Amino acid sequence: MKRSKTALHGAVQWPGETDKQGKAWAAPVNATVRAALDRVLSARPAIGGAYLFPAPGDSTKPVSYELASTWLKRAERKAKVPKQRGTLWHAYRRKWGTERKHLPIQDVMQAGGWSDPTCLQTIYQQPDEATLYRVVSEPTELREAQA
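User: That's the sequence. What structure does it adopt?
Assistant: Structure tokens below.
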């Protein structure tokens, strides 16, 4: 993980070969995520660049989508998290995007790896009760400009 002036706790490098659109990007991490990553990295030390979730038996390759999906389903069952309707990974991505509606879209797109604001805003960011209440409770008063 890389550290920079803007990524106080480092950043996760998403390689293009593991992205369905071939896009590579870096996303900074916060202190909580950094602590979790440090626990994983200390349990599996590696030299140089390495996958955070390597394929079992071949650390030079990333874990497969199918195996990661199996792990997620198992984790949801163990945590007694109800199955999200019509989705596996996208429910978590939608939650992540929706929780950041109040932030500048360019930054949310960069951190989440979106290339297109339309996709982020129409598919991932969903209406929620707290934001709906703010919409009806916090109008901005408009005034006519003086000539």
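The chain has two domains: 1-63, 64-135.
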